[in-house]
Each structure stands twice: as structure tokens, then as C-alpha cells.
Amino acid sequence: MIFDDMIRVPGDIIATLGDAAFRVRLSNGYVLIAHVTKRLKNDLGPLAVGESVQLELSPFDLSRGRIIGRTTTDLTLILATTDKIDR
User: Fold this and answer.
1) pLDDT one-digit tens code per residue, 26-51
2) How many whole angstroms separate alpha carbon 77 and alpha carbon 3?
3) C-alpha to C-alpha distance for 16 and 60, rounded to whole angstroms
4) Digit-coded pLDDT (tens) for 61-75
5) What 3-state DSSP class applies to 58?
6) Binning pLDDT at 50, 70 and 90, where does residue 3 land?
């Protein structure tokens, strides 16, 4: 498939640049511009500054990315997952 070499990384939205463009900071401090596709924009709903998102980057241009979803950092979800592993 054509998109098999895409890099997936989490990031945090730090600024809104327009209707579907955002400035996103990765965990290593790198800042890039990411966009949401029209189809996904309807599914995700509005995104706000401070939200954690999952990005898809091309290995050829690491300065731009595509937002493919929200990153869940809910503590109850983490605890539920670790509870299942321990038992």
C-alpha cells in the first residue's frame, strides 16, 4: 500500500492557524504544521489548543503532518488496561 511508510507520532496542539490547520508540538519539542482532512474533521469535531492528537508524518517532509485522531490520556482508561494485565 502507498501509505505503509508513514510515521505515526503523538503531539499537542499549541495554536490554531485556520479552519483546519494547527501548529503542533511533538514530545521531543519539534514544532510542525498539521492539518485535518475534510472527512476526518466531521468525525473528530472541533479541536482546541492543548488537546493531544495522533499525527501521521511523511518520511520525506517532517515539517508537515496530518491529524488522524485524538490521543486518549484518560487515567481511568490507563488504570483499566493495567488492571487487566495484572490479573
Assistant:
1) 989 999 999 998 888 888 888 889 99
2) 29
3) 24
4) 899 999 998 886 555
5) strand
6) low
Please state the pTM of the whole predicted model: 0.73
Q: What number of residues does the chain have?
A: 87
Residue type, 42: N
Q: What does the block give as the cell for 32?
A: 510542525
Helices within the chain (DSSP H only): 38-44, 75-86
- What the chain holds in terms of domains, given with CATH numbers, is 7-86 (2.40.50.140)
The DSSP 8-state label assigned to residue 4 in this structure reads T
Q: CA angle, 21 as apex, 33 and 14 as ends, to 5°?
A: 65
**DSSP code of 52?**
E
Give Dmax over CA atoms of the chain in angstroms. 47
